[in-house]
Amino acid sequence: MSLSFHYAGSPAHIVFGEGASQEAANWIAKIGCRRALVLSTPQQKSDAEALAAKIGPLAVGVFSGAVMHTPVDVTETAMKVVGESGADCVVSLGGGSTTGLGKAIAYRTDLPQIVIPTTYAGSEVTPILGQTEGGRKTTVKGAKILPEVVIYDATLTTGLPVGLSVTSGLNAMAHAVEALYAEDRNPISTLMAVEGLRAFRSALPEILATPGDLNARAGGLYGAWLCGTVLGTVGMALHHKICHTLGGTFDTPHAETHAIMLPHTAAFNGVAVPELLQPVAEIFGGSVGGGLWDFAKSIGAPLSLRDLGLTEADLDKASQIAVENPYWNPRSIDRPSIRTLLQQAWEGRRPEN
Ligand code: NAD
């Protein structure tokens, strides 16, 4: 075997442990900051206020306007609060939407970010920012965007609704599945991807059975860290491209779209690279797509694009957009094959391979 790869480790501090968010003030001080603005969605405002109270004199306020897909107008409103408060860092408490706002602020100001994730989306460990303006979502990548400190604390995630836990976990798993066949994969990304899939294989059924189980919740966050890290280090392909198209064009919900598409995109690419996706078949049992579909079904995940309100005409449009700009994928892509794949996902059929 000839081994050849490039590997770059992330410079971020990863702090993992039950109750670790109690140390937020220490981390603000450790990175040389004194004026933290705490960010959240409107739904998590009271949690953000409680965190700000815990941070004490190092917190200068709370901005609780974060929403999905990081709209630029929300960022501009938040930027005014950053300016008025004299904040010298942000603390993002929440899922990918709140992390996205913190990244958007850091992209414009280079302020350091401390992220305390409460979903499994994985954005906290990537240097990627997706923003929307005028109905268009664009993505930027860069060192300023990568958060400096990430604090994973399972005690803050017991309230994540089970349905969202399931779809968010499958969203993270999609990062790992695509990392296994990424063109620029390396031995570390593959190890992390396999371990991330194993973590979710154990944690999601346990979370479903006992949402308040801190060990299960820690397993979910451990999987999120692993799967998010590979999303941040290697390139994604067909799966992320299709989900981006569906979310961007039809405004389908982010995590659900990933959850529904994953078995189908994995089955499609599994035809081309069965050896690279073999760990997926081993972890989930049976075939690559069939095993993922059975697992998703067993934990009550949504299975059909039809249930998200898409029509068959939307699938025609999506398959056209998905092949417009060429990108790397382990299996060649054409419009009819993508249309067939979308049809299966729309009907919610179990993939055969
Ligand atoms: P989200 O952040 O929108 O959260 C969904 C809802 O759940 C929100 O109302 C939130 O307040 C609430 N919530 C979150 N944690 C909770 C908890 N523990 N208890 C109770 N309620 C809680 O959803 P998400 O799926 O985490 O993030 C989706 C966004 O993240 C999308 O905009 C997506 O594009 C982005 N994303 C970006 C990257 C990246 O690398 N740039 C990676 C993954 C996702």
Total helical segments: 13
Mean pLDDT: 96
| Strand portion | 5-15%
Bound small molecules, deduplicated: nicotinamide-adenine-dinucleotide
The strands making up the biggest β-sheet line up spatially as 1-8-5-4-2-3
In CATH, the homologous superfamily of the largest domain goes by the name: Dehydroquinate synthase-like - alpha domain
CATH fold-level topology of the largest domain = Dehydroquinate synthase-like, alpha domain
Distance between the termini: 28 Å
CATH class of the largest domain: Mainly Alpha
Regions with little confidence, pLDDT below 50 for 5+ residues: none
Domains (count): 2
Rg from C-alpha positions?
A: 20 Å
CATH architecture of the largest domain: Up-down Bundle
List the secondary-structure elements in sequence, H or E. Answer: EHEHEHEHEEEEHHHHHHHHH
Helix content: 40-55%
Which structural class fits the helix and strand makeup? alpha/beta
**Coarse morphology:** globular
Biggest β-sheet strands, sense, barrel: 6 strands, parallel
